[in-house]
# Entry
Amino acid sequence: MSRLLQTSDDKSFAMVRLLLGFVVFVRGAQGLLGWFGGSGIHDLSSFLRFVSLPEPLVLVVALVGFFGGIGLIAGLFTRVVAVSVAAETAFMLVLWPINPHLFMDWAITEGGASVEFYLLVLALAIVLVVKGAGALSLDRLLFSRTVGANAPWIAASSSCANGSLSKARAARARMDGPLERRHLTNA
# Structure
C-alpha cells in the first residue's frame, strides 16, 4: 500500500498531474454541475443512457471527473485517481460516439471531441499511474520515504525536550555530513 502512495520529487510529473487534474476537473464540473459552459448532470445522464450506461454509473462518471480532478490537482491518492480516470477514458474511447477523426474539430462543425483528446488524457493518466504525483503533492508530503527519513530530526527535537541535549546532538550528527558534525562537536 505504501508503494502505491509514494512518489518522487520530480517536478515534471507534478506538471503532468496539474495539467491533467485541471482538464479532468473542468470536464467533471461541466458534467456534474453545469459549470464552464457544461449542461449539467441531467443532460450528461441522458447522453450516457444513450450509449447504454446504467443510471448508477452515470453518477460515478460525473463524480470521477469532478472529484478526480480535485484529487489530481491536490496530488492526493494520485495513482488510484489516475487509474479511475484512465478506465473512464478507455471506456469513452470504446463506447462513446465520438468524432471518428483523429484530430480535434476546433471549429466544432461535426460536434464532439476527437480521438486525439481521449488518447492524450489516457496517456497522461497512465504516466501518473506508473510514476506517481511528483513534487508539490499531498502524496509526497504524507507518504514518501523522504518524509520518514526526517524522523531523526523529530527524535532529536523530542530528546531536547526531555533534557537530553547530547542525545539530540548525536542523533543530528548521524544525519548530517562531516562538516555539520565538526560544528556540533565545537558547540
Confidence is low (pLDDT under 50) at residues 147-161, 179-183.
